[in-house]
User: What shape does this take?
Amino acid sequence: MILLCFLFIPFIGGLLSLSFEKINIKYSRCSALFTMIILLVLSIYLCYLNLNTTNIWVVKYRTIWIDRFGIYLNLAVDGISLSMVLLSVVLGLLSIICSFKEINKCIGLFYFNLLWILGSIIGVFLAMDLFLFLFFWEIMIFPMYFIISMWGSAYKEQIAIKFFIYTQISGVILLITIFTLVVSNFYVTGKLTFEYQSLVNAQIGDKVGVLLMLGLFISFAIKLPIFPLHTWLPDVMAKNPKYGSLDLIGILIKTAAYGLLRLNLGLFPKQSLSFAPYAMIVGIISIYYGAVLAFSQRNIKRLMAYSSISHMGYVLIGIFSSNILSLQGAIMFVISNTLSSAGLIIISGLLYERLNTFDIRFMGGLFGKLGAIPGFALSLTLAVLGLPGTGNFIGEFLILLGNFKLYPKITIISSLGLILTAIYSLNLIHKVYYGKTKNKALKNIFLNFSEVNILSIILFLIFISGFYPQIIFDLSIKSITNIAQKTMFFY
Amino acid sequence: MIKNAQILPISFLFITLIILIITISFNRKNLIIFIITIIGLLISLLSIFLIKHTLFYPLIMIDNYSLFYTFLILISALYCSIFSYTYLNKNEEVYMLIICSTIGAILLVLSIHMTTFFIGLELMSIALYGLIIYLRNDKDNDLKALESGIKYMVLSSMASCFLLFGMALLYFYYGNLTFTNYYFKLDDNTTLWTIIGIVLILISLGFKLSIIPFHSYTPDLYEGTMPPITAFIATVTKISVFVAFMRLLMILPNITSFLNNVLTIISIVTILFGNILALKQNNLKRILGYSSIANLGYLLTVIIAMQMHICKFILETINIYLLTYTLTTLGIFGIISLINNETLSFYKGLFWSKPDLAIVLTIMLLSLAGIPLTAGFIGKVYIFLNALNYQLWFILISIGIGNSIGIYYYFRIISFLYMNVNKKQLIFDLNSFVYYLVLSLSLFILVFGLFPQNIISLIRVFS
Assistant: This one.
């Protein structure tokens, strides 16, 4: 029952804040904030439950939804989804606090969209029925479209439609794949079911299995995004409202990583294993490609987008090497990378507020001028490049360590990409914060209380995950062991 | 006598028609005529529940399937006449023509014989000619209406000729005109003429359904006619012809693999081009015209599946898809007839002046695009499952591509709705009946999208 509440609270909260807009703007802000706080409390309670059970599934909820197709409202939480849910709730809370100052038009509608995105993302993480997964996966798109097209900057309609077409293609591929899986399972067992637990044991032929696995892989790779399918991300990032892009990078990407972990490895362990080398090669290409392109960008936000493409290569490698170490590394890396890039995006928004530009060429010599911003930016950038002591380092290290046993060459090549990461992020720091001051019209606004708090919370979380990563490992160890054992069987 | 009571909906409509003719010649009061029409439609709608399954051999068959579509047709006729009451306040003959056309459509749905089939088709389309060329005392629109009416008349009568010729050719071989399994047997002895006859019939029906090689009149027709009448064309004619087409093909056993391949190619082309052609249109009704072409393309795939193996699931798919399509189309045209403007740029920033209408229109468009939470998603799921179940891979891929293209133009309209433009206040009556009808339709679509189980099990009874 707690899961059902968890699922519906953001949707109801969104509707409430939409309807409160007519009465008073403050009410809708408060209701959005209040919704997120309830969610945070609930997810911490779930964490507490998780530590006290030995069962893989912490809480389950199951009731019939559409009897005709054997579709259940089947929700369950395990360590992996719990860590993802916790992360998205924290990020959602931060983005709502951020948006208090930023969003001035149609506030109710903005919170409605934001909360619906969050709700559908939580739905994706909780859904244990593939139809439900698909349902939330597709719902997620259209509030995102509205956020881009209503609160974005120039050319927002075209960008929004570009984003929408990409994600829709991914959605259609996912839909076809899942239905094919269900129908072929129906032919074997004579039972029409969409449930994850029973589809795990489905008897699928090898060829069909490879095709289905590829379908899942492509549809998640569009969302992740990975090298040949990435072109929507930089545009969308550049044209997004700053707090919308916080959401985008933080949350949309994680759903794809979660999908790869849960569906690809969970449903098709054997086929994923045989596909692993190719997936890793794609990952290496996107590591290098993203890093090289990030180096030559002039817009900070485009730079962030390419850097996240580059980082997702590591996540891909970590997921597909599929042993306990690298999977834990991947989850760790997703969490800390999301946090650090979210921090950097907030900082780029703050810089825009002061300098009125995202262009790196018009910045420079900002160190010592804007109060605490350069300090935060420096530490967050160091986190992005994976300095020991931050979660990113732990993540990268574990991914590479776990992968080295199986694919040493790929590990060596991909670890060289870390140098490129260091180069572009230090280059960014150098160009923006050191050197001569180029911008005369600098508004020297100091950070206000809430911004300092947000940035410090993000930094604090990154350092906690860097110095004591065991917290996050403990959350997800049981279910990761389960997945890794399943693939181990096929080595 | 008891047996004849089984065609109650048609007889009630006939009685309504006669009363209407008499009243119009005495008393030309719009409201009275409208009320008589509504009462007639409602009575015949209620009379459906009294009917039992019967077979009037060899002309008419009444089963659950045809009853369901009679219901759907009557509902859409009801909605269209209400739309036209608010849209034009003076002309009473519209209702007469609508009822006449509805009778034809119902006859078409019930028919299992070529004669009733032809009579129904002609009754429906001849009344439609009058509806299409309905002048509005507005120079631009009238010219368009005339153009589309003449186009439709010429092409439609051509199609009828094709149909008649095809029927004659079939009669030449089988000596019978009923749609029964027993007679239509294709084997090695089948002459070329018979196959040509079947092809001619398919062509004429393809014209009525506006499948791609025969589609060119559709967008003009949609653009030229008044919104209520467009709603009528988009729902009643499409439903009835499609259902009759289904019945014809259900009887024709395995129309040779060659024809099946042709149907496959036609449906793929219809899906892809129907969606592609809609991309660059600037008139909302033209876009909907192309989208209706694409929707019928999705439905055609079901017919191809039916050629392989008939099972209940196919009928269920058609029922659900046509239901969602009808409701969504009615809703959209209801809004268009409320706003009374069809250029896309007029809809810029509708959200800021009329938020409720914009939200309803958004729900309808999302449902056409097949986004979850709306009824359209359930229909899409059915179509996909059907294509997968029969392993029609090319069709599956084309449905996927067509769906992704379709998203583009639906969302183009939606992005127009939410553009931030300062605009003058729209003038229309929000308290009109149509507004509540459209609102209830959108609620129904949402409920169907969220809790489809009840409606699915209801429809399973009818299929």
